[in-house]
Automatic annotation (TrEMBL):
The keyword Cytoplasm does not apply. SUPFAM superfamilies: Actin-like ATPase domain (SSF53067). PROSITE patterns: FGGY_KINASES_1. It catalyses: glycerol + ATP = sn-glycerol 3-phosphate + ADP + H(+). This is Glycerol kinase. Its EC number is 2.7.1.30. Glycerol binds at residues 83-84, 135, 244-245. Pathway: Polyol metabolism; glycerol degradation via glycerol kinase pathway; sn-glycerol 3-phosphate from glycerol: step 1/1. It comes from Flavihumibacter petaseus NBRC 106054.
Length: 500
């Protein structure tokens, strides 16, 4: 019998990846492609669903071709994806009726303010675990139905399908045979009751969403389809789905309550496993479904930061200050401090724990002596400070100190950022050997779904630390920086509040 592999599709905000994992959870082959971002108006962010599919499909084909494997050597396929991003398509033609509205998009902020003013905050948090914000899918879906010509009529007739990116990819991989989403993705729509694990009728009514548009809810780890005959990918069991942050929690083996990871991708997302009960945050964090496995739902508490590695991408593409993301490390390391420059990258408002939809990016403390190196360092520090704010909120909710942080995601290749992070938090930061933890989590869920791995205890042995970053300075040296950061965030919020 030839050795089999698990294929994970990781559809992120900036790129699509396909990764083959072996039985030891090691990467055997990888292909990756960036795709375009569209910013049609200030605060709007869109993707083309066909480009999402085309890049995802091409990396999958490339990965298989490079490996030389045939489909019967693939034991299962797992999907993990940028969450909340909202796609609506025609069931009959599979044609999207609008571009994907991305999680970072702010176009529904005013409607969210209205919902808050009408007193919906507590009820929505109680049911969904979420804080009302344009971030989640429900208001994006409502916007499409209200603004795309003919959409509502078609939706009422049952002709349209809604899905997050996992739903879209599952639809495309099966030629429209399945219209599904797993509970971890569904919990990000603001339409799911996380206690019952069902779509919530009251919320569907509030957002005026016809139930016929909604995908079927499935567990995160179970065979739900096989791939259709598209090039070399026919008949692979599709057996795992999870939102990328929950998949990373699984891939980091945070499978016991109290375990925490932080992922540094486009945004930063810290999740704590809270076991089989949702914990309602008193400190502006989210309560969300981590996964449904073996018929049991595991919950997580989450701090979502909208701009993490994206600030580096902005310096690269927007300001053209660097040519490659990796160049930021040398540039930022060329100065030992920012000379009191603070950047608040609230490009898409502020997420946890501030939740200000109207805040925007800002930079304080610039003098005639400020160079691009200071700005580069301030950008990296801004990522670390935002993570600190979320970690403090999580510690307050948990009533326990977090004594070590497991990290992953594209920006964790930056050793300087990891060192700054450890200094700011004054705790060790641990990077695992497999950086592609998100994809690994999806592979694990798919592999467990087909019995490739017998149970979680088998995969638990596979997690290995690559590098520890320990604090290299005293807390007293960091304290003035933290004060400066807090002033900068407050000023950014005050600027937004002054306008509203
Ligand atoms: N060396 C680096 N230093 C800091 N940020 C980086 C570095 N390399 C990549 N990044 C950032 O990491 C992000 C990509 O990480 P990834 O995990 O692929 O994100 P996503 O899944 O959101 O697309 C980008 O925003 C990029 O700017
Ligand atoms: O694309 P990422 O990895 O930054 O993840 C995006 C999140 O899923 C948004 O909630």
């Amino acid at each position: 019998m030839p050795e089999k592999y698990i294929l994970a599709l990781d559809q992120g905000t900036t790129s699509s990846r396909a990764i083959l994992f072996d039985r030891n959870g090691q990467i055997s082959q990888l292909a990756q492609k960036e795709f375009p971002q569209y910013y049609p108006q200030s605060g709007w962010v869109e993707h083309d669903p066909e480009e999402i599919w085309a890049t995802q499909f091409s990396v999958m084909a490339e990965c298989l071709a490079k490996s030389g494997l045939t489909t019967n050597e693939i034991a299962a396929l797992g999907i993990t994806n940028q969450r909340e991003t909202t796609i609506v398509w025609e069931k009959s033609s599979s044609r999207p009726i609008y571009r994907a509205i991305v999680w970072q998009d702010r176009r529904t902020s005013a409607y969210c303010d209205q919902l808050k003013a009408e007193g919906w905050s507590a009820r929505i948090q109680e049911k969904t675990g979420l804080i009302i914000d344009a971030y989640f899918s429900a208001t994006k879906l409502k916007w499409i139905l209200d603004n795309v010509s003919g959409a509502r009529e078609q939706a009422v007739k049952g002709e349209l399908a809604f899905g997050t990116v996992d739903t879209w990819l599952s639809w495309k991989l099966t030629n429209g045979k399945v219209h599904v989403t797993d509970l971890s993705n569904a919990s990000r729509t603001m339409l799911l009751n996380i206690h019952t694990g069902e779509w919530d009728e009251e919320l569907l009514k509030l957002f005026d969403i016809p139930a016929s548009m909604l995908p079927e809810l499935i567990p995160s780890s179970k065979v739900y389809a096989v791939t259709e005959s598209i090039v070399k990918t026919a008949n692979i069991p599709m057996a795992g789905i999870a939102g990328d942050q929950q998949a990373a929690l699984f891939g980091q083996q945070c499978i016991n309550p109290g375990m925490v990871k932080n992922t540094y991708g486009t945004g930063c997302f810290m999740l704590m496993n809270t076991g089989e009960q949702p914990v309602m945050s008193r400190n502006n964090l989210l309560s969300t479904i981590a996964w449904k496995l073996n018929n049991r739902i595991t919950y997580a508490m989450e701090g979502s930061i909208f701009i993490g590695g994206a600030v580096v991408q902005w310096l690269r593409d927007g300001l053209q200050m660097i040519r490659k993301s990796s160049e930021i490390e040398t540039l930022a390391a060329s100065v030992s401090t920012t000379e009191n420059v603070f950047m608040v990258p609230a490009f898409a408002g502020l997420g946890a724990p501030h939740w200000n939809q109207h805040a925007r990016g800002t930079c304080f403390g610039i003098t005639r002596g400020t160079t691009k190196a200071h700005l580069a360092r301030a950008a990296l520090e801004s990522i670390a400070f935002q993570v600190m704010d979320v970690l403090k909120a999580m510690e307050a909710d948990a009533g326990l100190p977090i004594s070590e942080l497991r990290v992953d995601g594209g920006a964790t290749t930056n050793n300087l950022l990891m060192q700054i992070q450890s200094n700011v938090l004054q705790v060790p930061v641990v990077r695992p050997t497999v950086y592609e933890t998100t994809a690994l989590g999806a592979a694990y869920l798919a592999g467990l779904g087909v019995g490739y791995w017998e149970d979680v205890h088998v995969i638990q042995q596979q997690w290995q630390a690559d590098q520890h970053f320990y604090p290299s300075c005293a807390a007293s040296e960091i304290a003035p920086l933290i004060r400066g950061w807090k002033r900068a965030v407050n000023a950014s919020i005050a600027w937004a509040n002054d306008e509203s």
